[in-house]
Every structure is written in structure tokens, then in C-alpha cells.
Write a structure and sequence with these properties.
Blueprint: H1 2-28, H2 35-58
Length: 61
């Protein structure tokens, strides 16, 4: 069951990172040059934070 929670969180975070990057680009009024790198950084940051929280809540090792 824990694997399902982590998978679901990963899918949601993927779409969240895409929305955040898209909103930042709209705010700036242009596409960013290193869009892929920025997306990766957002996704990595969100994932590390949420997975840490899930491990604390679920008690997984």
C-alpha cells in the first residue's frame, strides 16, 4: 500500500511541477531557456519534501 501512496504522490507532483513552471513562465512573459533543468529542480524539490513527509506519516524505513 505504501508503494501506491508514493506512486500517486509522484504522479501528482509531476503535474504540480509542470503547473508551477508554466505559471512562472506566464508571469515572466516568456519561455525559460533552461526549462528542462528548472522543471527537474522543481520536481526534485517537491518530491524530496513530500516523500520525506510520507515516510514520517507512514512510518516507512
Amino acid at each position: 500500500m505504501e508503494s501506491l501512496y508514493f506512486l500517486l504522490a509522484a504522479v501528482v507532483l509531476y503535474f504540480l511541477a509542470d503547473r508551477v513552471l508554466d505559471a512562472a513562465e506566464r508571469y515572466a512573459g516568456r519561455r525559460f531557456a533552461y526549462r528542462t533543468v528548472i522543471f527537474f529542480g522543481l520536481l526534485l524539490g517537491f518530491t524530496l519534501a513530500v516523500f520525506w513527509i510520507l515516510r514520517r506519516i507512514l512510518g516507512a524505513s
